[in-house]
TrEMBL record:
GO terms for molecular function: DNA binding. Keywords: DNA-binding. CDD domains: HTH_XRE. SUPFAM superfamilies: lambda repressor-like DNA-binding domains (SSF47413). It comes from Virgibacillus massiliensis. InterPro entries: Cro/C1-type_HTH (IPR001387), Lambda_DNA-bd_dom_sf (IPR010982). Residues 13-67 form the HTH cro/C1-type domain. This is Helix-turn-helix.
Length: 79
């Protein structure tokens, strides 16, 4: 049985990329993913693997928590 907790990962990839004046393609090449992956991640439509999250944080030389934030949802089965 699948439970919907509505939690997600929020990110600041776009902000860090723009501050570094990089294109999505340049960032994608630097961290080993497609431009499309960066695009959907910036729209918060994709949560990266832990490895990719750490790779991106390392690339920007910041802590992973500076870019990615866990947003806790609620269990819809609770009353």
């Amino acid at each position: 049985m699948k439970e919907d907790f509505e939690d997600y990962i929020e990110n600041k990839v776009y902000e860090h990329r723009v501050l570094k004046r990089m294109s999505q393609k340049e960032l994608a090449d630097a961290v080993g993913v497609s431009k499309q992956t960066i695009f959907v991640m910036e729209k918060n439509n994709y949560s990266p693997s832990l490895v990719l999250a750490f790779r991106i944080a390392d690339f920007f030389n910041v802590d992973v928590n500076d870019i990615f934030t866990y947003v806790k949802g609620s269990d819809q089965n609770e009353n």
